[in-house]
User: Fold this.
Amino acid sequence: MGRLSVDLCGIELDNPVIAASGTFGYGCEFAEIYDINCLGTFSFKGTTLEPRMGNPLPRIAEGRGGMLNSVGLQNPGVDAVIAEELPRLARFFRKPVMANVSGFSVEEYAQVCEKLEAQPQVGWLEVNISCPNVHGGGMSFGTDPESAAAVTRAVRAVTAKPVIVKLSPNVTDIVSIARACEDAGADGISLINTVMAMRIDLNTRQPVLANLTGGLSGPAVFPLALRMVWQVSDAVHIPVIGLGGISSAEDVIEMMLAGACAVEVGSANLVRPTACRDIIEALPAVMDRLGIDNLKSIIGGAKA
Amino acid sequence: MKQSIFTIIENRPLSPKASRMRLQGDVSAITGPGQFVDLALDGFFLRRPFSVCDADSNSFTILYERAGQGTEAMTALPVGSKLDVLTGLGNTFDRTEAGDHPLLIAGGSGASPLYWLARLLRAEGKNVTVILGFSSKEEVFYEEEFRALGCEVLVTTEDGSYGIPGFVTAAMDRPCSYFYVCGSKLMLREVCRRAETSGQLSMAQRLGCGFGVCMGCTCQTVSGGKRLCKDGPVLRKEEVLWDD
Ligand SMILES: Cc1cc2nc3c(=O)[nH]c(=O)nc-3n(C[C@H](O)[C@H](O)[C@H](O)COP(=O)(O)OP(=O)(O)OC[C@H]3O[C@@H](n4cnc5c(N)ncnc54)[C@H](O)[C@@H]3O)c2cc1C
Ligand SMILES: Cc1cc2nc3c(=O)[nH]c(=O)nc-3n(C[C@H](O)[C@H](O)[C@H](O)COP(=O)(O)O)c2cc1C
Ligand code: FES
Assistant:
């Protein structure tokens, strides 16, 4: 057990750095660049029951200190992930992986999780509740405590693996949603997903994204994410994973001081392919400089 | 794909809008024309992608047009400055079907990847005709460079101030065994409609990562979804679905 190690819902991570869903594919592109076994783990691309093509192009825009995406959950579907991606992953990744699950109905979430429950490589289920509920007028499951709880309950019923519910920041009261998920049986909470945003092209005077709006991520959202991690970790008794704009070892420590027991790194991987490895390698020296002996000891440290 | 630090050894204007930059460093990941590089620029979150215009054993060239704040900032970078670059991105033009008289068609900076392609086709002994399209006479660049490779070069200008008046399609009545085109999406579509032979096009789109992980660039083709940054940017005319 090293000074970087942390516990995530009963599974020991060598370090708190998890590559975030949607920015790491199913791992293989990064495995060509560095040995991804150095990660705490990674969360694979949001997976749905059926294959999804995603939204029309352009799907990417830039903002100061960040980016917007409207990829729209493009993925090959859970059966192809189990038949192709997981066996391939087993060839180069020895750790339990986090399975990121999306759905457009409560039943879909449960069906996807049931299939992943049978996969030994999957350590945790990370349930992304930012998706629109097709039976609820298209409102995201993550914007209302009752539907967030309904998804959590349905998933909880089909799996013995730790269930981590990933929250959307696009809500008025993140604390009530986190509490509803905890009460419905979640083992952990991760936050934040992307922040709903928009850009307009001055030359064409039209929105840049074909989908009009997209999710903002990157350093621009870090202070917002940190504030929400602070609030949620105060309100629940289950582990909280902090993410949103993390791009350095210092950011990791700040997020842990706010109450995160582990962190995820997203967009930084897209612009600096070795971002996660670089952050992990930088952690010991930054901890020395700040007089931190081991990371477990600083979780929520800013609240003392 | 490789991430490494390059040194700018040339950065000079070619026209009021376009510039040429040469960068020195480890080019081992760059394998052929059609591929692109992704430059990290100070103050901008996303990298900026550019087609490789030419490469030798320790440097590569890009031709870039000022299109916004990032490319504007690039024009001010002095020789000697260092840039963090991802190299070896995307696929390459396939020359096996070029035939003996390939036609290369470029809009503005679309000339960039076609220059390296033209050089290789000439080395293979092909008769190469190049159509370079610009908005006006003052925007014209690389006409002499293509001619120096031994290509037949036709220039079109939209305002008729130089060469053949009109769009590149106005010069497409040339003998042609196969075509290669790079330019705006509108131009790619018009060229593909007009062309009687098959051909390949280089399709640009706003990218997230540039190396195939974010799904930010997936376009639908007859052969399914393709990531333009990894399975492209070069596509075959026959596989493109224009109505996406
Ligand atoms: C594979 C590929 C090859 C390219 N090759 C060349 C080349 O050889 N020469 C050249 O001049 N240009 C090329 N481009 C276009 C070039 O990348 C953009 O013009 C440039 O990124 C604009 O940056 P900006 O900051 O000036 O514009 P801004 O509009 O300020 O940029 C904002 C964001 O939008 C993106 N963006 C804006 N316009 C485009 C565009 N037309 N295509 C893709 N992304 C865009 C930027 O990368 C950035 O992420 C290529 C694009 C791609 C995808
Ligand atoms: C291109 C892209 C795709 C994403 N796809 C998913 C996804 O499929 N599922 C999910 O839960 N989050 C997804 N996210 C959100 C990230 O996992 C993360 O929550 C968010 O980007 C904030 O972290 P960051 O600022 O470090 O990127 C995506 C983000 C990006 C940029
Ligand atoms: S830009 Fe990320 S997959 Fe193509």
Remarks:
- The first strand of chain B starts at residue 2 and ends at 13.
